[in-house]
Amino acid sequence: MVPTMGPGLLSRFLHPNPAIRRELVDLLYTSLPQVTAINAASITGSVALAAAHRDPGYIAITCAIVINAIGRMVSLLRYKRRAARLSDKDVIHWERIYAAGAASFGLALGALSFRAFQLDDQPGAWLAFGLSMSYCVGMVSRAAIRPWVVLSTTAVLLAPTLIAGLIRPEISYRLGAGMLVLFWFTIREASRHLSKAFIERLEAKHALARQANHDFLTGLPNRAAFLNALETIAGSVSIVAIDLDGFKPVNDRHGHHAGDDLLRQVATRLSDCIGSSGMAARFGGDEFMLLKPVAEGANGREEALALTRDAIRALSMPFLLSDIPVVIGASAGLLVSDEPLSESEVADILQRVDAALYAAKRAGGGNWAWAEQHEAELRQTA
């Protein structure tokens, strides 16, 4: 196997959006029919040359082609089985695996061409060169979405043929070697162009999806995204409804632009509180929702309460609006759900946590209320 690029060098070619990175690597691993075809053709051709000439070099190269072909097939099938469970870091690792497998296979094909030139086996050289060109075309048509993979693979594929042509005394071979360099630059431009066009389409698709599921002002997930997460999340989760105390006076006094700036700062603080394992969403106006997995039982309730306290504490600290310190506050209602929720149960949960929130606001604000506690108090007064 050829060595892969180090993390620092590869990072130059990584898309900043993890979702787009994942989609690009998924597309690399959909090339099973194409890889199967080139594997079959390459194994057939190399076995035929090895059997016809009984040359140790041909035999060794044939073994290398077979081993690489099997390795590529195994990696394609393994990725398909594991793709749904892979982390963003794992996806980058699998991109390197694909590149290493493609380059190793290309190097073996290049070696087959080099050996044919060494033996002055013109039919063998023609066969090996045809396989190499087929592989190049396949790489551009399938892997052009990741140009660095195409360029590194075609470079190691064409290099042995290039060297073999240059060491031959005939001028025609040397001219042919020069043409391979021009061919590589053509592949380079084609793969870059195709990659740019494809990634622009992906970015446009993801931008539209984000607009449908994110609040345009704060960048937080919106109500639709929160409800979808609530319906699909498994295990115990804390659900916290938050409403700002004193937002309207700030908005009236300093203007809507200042109010918008304040909401964006609130969104940032809530995102910091929830961390990467949860979700902070804006439901509209100055109302926000938090969703985060917690432990089961009493520990989960403690985690939910700690999250609520952190959020209220964070929102009670001064905000700067055009260098003017502004102090507001927040009230919250919370509960912990231990089971997956149906659509009707989600509506009931939101109604319960919202009622607890406004109970906390009626109590003076800057506080929180458990949904169960508020419901028990209502039953006592009924």
What do these coordinates show?
By secondary structure, the chain is of the alpha+beta class. It has two domains: 206 residues, no CATH class; 159 residues, Alpha-Beta Plaits. Helix content is 70%, strand content 10%. The chain contains 14 helices and seven strands. The strands form two sheets. A five-stranded mixed sheet has the order 2-3-1-6-7, with helices on both faces. Strands 4-5 form a two-stranded antiparallel sheet. α4 runs antiparallel to α5, α5 runs antiparallel to α6 and α6 packs antiparallel against α7.
How far the N terminus sits from the C terminus, by CA atoms, comes to 76 Å
How many structural domains are formed by the residues?
A: 2
Strand order, sheet with most strands: 2-3-1-6-7
The chain-level structural class is alpha+beta
- State the helix count: 14
Helical residue percent? over 70%
H/E element sequence:
HHHHHHHHHEHHEEHEEEHEH
Number of strands: 7
Rough shape? elongated
Residue-averaged pLDDT: 88
* Major sheet characteristics: 5 strands, mixed
Low-confidence stretches: 1-9
Query: Strand share of the residues?
Result: 5-15%
Rg value: 31 Å
Any descriptors?
alpha+beta, single chain, Alpha-Beta Plaits, five-stranded mixed β-sheet, 2 domains, 382 residues, two-stranded antiparallel ribbon, 70% helix
Condensed summary:
The protein has 382 residues and is α+β, with helices and mostly antiparallel strands. Helices cover 70% and strands 10% of the residues. The protein is built from 14 helices and seven strands.
